From TrEMBL:
Keywords recorded for this protein, A-Z: DNA recombination, DNA-binding
Domain Tyr recombinase as annotated: residue spans: 148-334
UniProt-listed InterPro entries: DNA_brk_join_enz, Integrase-like_cat_sf, Integrase_catalytic, Integrase_recombinase_N, Tyrosine_recombinase_XerCD
Similarity field: Belongs to the 'phage' integrase family.
Naturally occurring in which organism (per UniProt): Pilimelia columellifera subsp. columellifera
Magnesium keyword on record: no
Name this polypeptide is given: Tyr recombinase domain-containing protein
Record carries keyword Nucleotide-binding: no
Stretches of the chain forming a coiled coil according to its record: none
């Protein structure tokens, strides 16, 4: 005996009510059928695959959190943890975090952990191990980001920092070079560490910076800084003229690492208590210089000086036309350093 149309409609309605009670939609069932039967890896199996496919910048931010997740849940399948479990683990990691001199209660640590889990699960969704509706990390709320406490440093404070760096420590020449590089270019630490000999254009006093998101830009620098960078390479890095190797190096010619920055600022803080108390770091130099450029040369030059793209938060069509040229950035560098620049228009 065949079911009547009305009976079929009633069954469909009943099924929809059941799905709604489970928090699902018909689309969820269709999507889940696409991954049905596909073995779901454990965290210990999947995390190394994600690590191998992640760029160095993101890996530096997320890698430590992924390692901790493997330690906690290595044998569990990706689909096992609930949103509540993911959030609870974030709270535990926040409580057990390493206390830093510029720490602010661990909010950024928990925020980075949630971002790391979202990144991990986004890849798992793309690989077909679960659907977006099944993604537990997407249901975890990030802690609210706190306003930055960084501000532009006065000239007198910058002079104090440079004096301590150039007169203390086991390699004052290196530390002075680092501070000048960051002061003239406002680059991030990763940008400085990525510079190679082949990224220097001595004739035009330009340095190519490799920064966040795989971006590259040519930044004007003073003739004095260019000579110092070349002298540094000739003394410490001229290894069979391998110009594609990292430029900045220790006295024994080992490539510089982030650790040098940490040691430098700890030492400066031991001589200048306000540096230690306020948690001054290299990024404060970036904030200081970009602020000065904006006040002296306007928003467009400051944005170009910082290496910010037009997509980095600008609103409105007018932003499309706000673009500084290289000679304008060179003019800002000339004013900042008091040295003529070959690209600056007279």
């Amino acid at each position: 005996m065949n079911a009547t149309p009305n009976a079929g409609r009633a069954q469909v309605d009943a099924a929809l009510v059941l799905l709604a009670g489970l928090g699902l939609t018909p689309e969820d069932l269709v999507a889940s059928s696409a991954v049905a039967g596909k073995p779901v890896p454990t965290f210990a199996e999947y995390v190394p695959q994600v690590v191998a496919a992640t760029n160095p910048g993101s890996l530096k931010t997320y890698g430590s959190y992924w390692n901790k997740v493997v330690d906690q849940w290595g044998s569990r399948a990706l689909t096992e943890p609930t949103p509540l479990e993911i959030q609870e683990l974030g709270k535990r990691l926040r409580a057990a975090r390493l206390r830093r001199r510029n720490g602010r209660g661990g909010a950024s640590s928990e925020e980075n952990y949630v971002a790391a889990m979202r990144c991990l699960y986004k890849r798992a969704v793309a690989d077909g191990y679960l659907t977006e509706a099944q993604n537990p990390a997407a249901k975890v709320t990030k802690p609210r980001r706190q306003p930055s406490t960084r501000r532009a440093l006065p000239d007198a404070r910058l002079a104090e920092i440079n004096k301590v760096a150039s007169t203390t420590g086991d390699d004052p020449a290196l530390d002075s070079l680092l501070l000048r590089l960051h002061t003239e270019t406002a680059c991030r630490r990763g940008g400085a560490l990525a510079v190679r000999r082949c990224d220097l254009d001595p004739k035009q006093c330009l340095i190519r910076l490799h920064e966040k998101g795989g971006t590259q830009r040519w930044q004007p620098v003073s003739p004095t800084l260019m000579r110092s960078l070349l002298a540094h390479w000739n003394e410490r890095g001229n290894l069979d003229d391998r110009s594609t190797e990292q430029l900045l190096r220790y006295k024994d010619r080992r490539p510089l690492t982030y650790r040098r920055y940490d040691h430098m600022w700890v030492r400066i803080g031991q001589h200048l208590d306000w540096v230690d108390i306020q948690g001054i770091s290299t990024h404060w130099l970036r904030h200081t210089i970009i602020t000065w450029v904006e006040r002296s040369f306007g928003y467009a030059v400051a944005r170009a000086f910082a290496g910010h793209s037009q997509e980095s938060g600008d609103v409105g069509a007018t932003a499309t036309y706000i673009k500084a040229e290289l000679h304008e950035i060179a003019a800002a560098v000339a004013a900042l350093t008091g040295e003529p620049h070959p690209l600056a228009e007279n």
